[in-house]
User: Fold these one by one.
Assistant:
Number 1:
Amino acid sequence: MINVRAIRATDEAAYLDILRRTTDDDRYYRFFRAVDHFDHADVARFVEPVPSIIGIIAIDDTHGLGVAHAFISDGAAEIALVVAADAQRRGIGRRLVGGILDQLAARGIATVTAVSLWENLGFAALARSFGMTATHAPGDGSVVHWRLVLTTRTSIDLEAHDPITPKPSVSSPPQRPLRRASRLEPTRSYVFSWRLLRSTISSMRP
């Protein structure tokens, strides 16, 4: 049974386990740099209740599968998610994003943003399936900025233990040749958060 619910302080170990079960490519997509170490300090602040942060987690009977966060500021929110390598292609990213959007809509947040690498076609397909539109950062064609204006959505109960229903894959339009394609596989469904990068790098060991 796979459940999606609000993240709790007691989920710290599960969140850390999710991060440790990502690949080098996954972490490159997530943090825009090589990351090979996570510890208590890296995850503790993202499982504690904070009014400006919404967090949800997907778990099964044995371990965590993925986590999504929304960072709220000035009436808008930036979303970020990570799915463990062994839990990808199971509809978990879609359920996490849907849950975050429902929670933001319930709070009256109208604008949702995200930032991803151009090569991250998995997230591009996921974002487009939710109606997000893309623009490129001025002077940096490797970064894509995503934006969504929320309309009324059907809320889900994050405390309910509902199984995730697998969703059909969404194909993205043809893209220009991938940069660094020899190392980066365009199959991951992760989104990068500028706020998360700044705070994570500052506390991460070399």
Note: The CA atoms of residues 70 and 100 lie 7 Å apart.
Number 2:
Amino acid sequence: MNGPALFPANPSRIVLTGFMGAGKTTVGALLAERLGWDFFDSDFLVEARAAMTVADIFEKRGEAAFRELEAEVVREAGEPGSEEQFVLALGGGALEMASTRDLLASLTDTLVVFLDAPLETMIARCAAHEEGPVRPVLADRVRLAERWSQRLPWYRQAHLTVETSEFSPEAVVDRILQRLEPGIRNSRRQDVRVSIGAPGKPGLPA
């Protein structure tokens, strides 16, 4: 991905990117429900693959191992013959892997959406998540800012950027749907699946 990509004419998959606290999981589940598509969260897919939580993967195997697993599940989701018509919420750091960026750039049937918000807004959202766990990464604001700045150019290579700071998740979904063709907006299926982790997604990294 070397710049904002051409908007896919008839996407059958939507991938949401953005920093932690951008609302990817919440918006993704709502968007999939509105479309009648399946919904997957990459962090949950990684946990299912590794049979341990993200926090445990980081503690026992390290961030590099987590990123490899993350890239693997995203690659499998994008393979020909994989599930059609789904929304996938990527982890905030998924685009750090060049292989994942290249994969997304190569998928002509996939719409990549960047959910944007000021860093302080996203940090405040995470801190206010009462059902979620304590996130040690929130204490190191300097490191968070560095990661945000590093990832921002990759986020901005998405087909569509949607500002989320002043909109409810439902309104963000509406803004995404407005950019889709009517035939896509009305392509509901009955056998949809929703795969997400527990509320707060324990111990997630930045």
Note: The longest strand covers residues 110-116.
Number 3:
Amino acid sequence: MYELQVSEDSTFNTVALDDSAINRITKPVVLEKDKTYFARVRSKNAAGNGEWSEKSEFNTGTNSEITLEILVNNRWNMVSVPLRVTDFRKDTLFPTAMSNAYIYSGGYESKETLEFGRGYWMKFTGSQQISFTGEPLDNDTITVAAGWNMIGSISYPVPVLSVQKNPSQMTLSSFYQYSGSYQLSDTIQPGRSEEHTSELQSPYVI
């Protein structure tokens, strides 16, 4: 469980959002356009509250841009790019990551520039919040290879059962998310990545 605070001031004397019952890896937040906000997060359990994360600063942008926030766990996470952003460099999108961004394509490969449809392994120090601002991505077509794949996400949750495959009769394995260990997933969450296997190279529509 996590508590998320969003404020217009860096001292958090007044908060625009204070949600202390977050048990998901994504949190849709409605904020005013073209404003600068600060955000922080901490873990909660029966023993009490953890320390607040380092605060992050972000601007909500204008026009059709939205702000999306995801929570990453301590150490390794599977993440993706859920919005159309102006700068796809890993250091811009995930400035607090302590590792390179790694894709899986029969083996692990480091990437400096990220892209839609891909899933990436990244390592973080402590649970923290990552904010994205950009134009929403309503759907995407992802070409997967035969065998294991790491796929990305779009800007909204996608039930695994709604993923379209071609050919339609092709067998699709279960989807797995990672949160300290692999777990079966029924929904592809924004900003996260899923692992699964495919019988052959083919496109998926999410």
Note: The mean pLDDT is 85.
Number 4:
Amino acid sequence: MPAGTPTGISITARQYVPESPHKTPAPAEHPQGNLQQALAAQQAVCRQHPDNADAWFVLAGINARLGRIKDVEHCCRQILALQAENTAARYNLGVALQQQGKAEPAIACYRELLEKQPDHAPAHANLGLLYHENKQPAEAEAHARRSVLLDPDKVAAHNTLGLVCLDQERYPEALACFRKAIRLDPGYVQGHYNTGLALLRSDQPE
């Protein structure tokens, strides 16, 4: 089966360290083995300051690093309750939903984001993959192409576009997309897998 994954959560604690010096240090400043301590500390901050969006961002970053995707979703919803126009939180909510297999809410989340920020390349890339998985090739191709246009170095978008072409037996286009993804990231396992699959289906030599 062809492989594709969404562009990941863009939350990292280093990106969202609050400017105020009294806040808890970002998890990027904690040794890897202390993430659980960082989690407990930041959870306490959020309990004490539930109306502080920056605190929720930091907590989301720790949860993301620990793979606690349901908790990332919760943090993003808390942020959006405080800052409804926060596009970073909206995007990360979409990724968290997508990673939990909640396709329809994720699609709605990305679409709402794109209404406010139509040139958000990662959202287009992830929508392309969701539409591909939902067997909506026209929408999948449109969003994948838009993502590639906005960010030609977006590996996942080239891969998604290749998947759309592969499903439609447009093998030369699919191979070109997968090979572009591999050129951008030679270690991209899904690109290599999908290249082999496209060659097998098209019966083309390497």
Note: The longest helix spans residues 35-48.
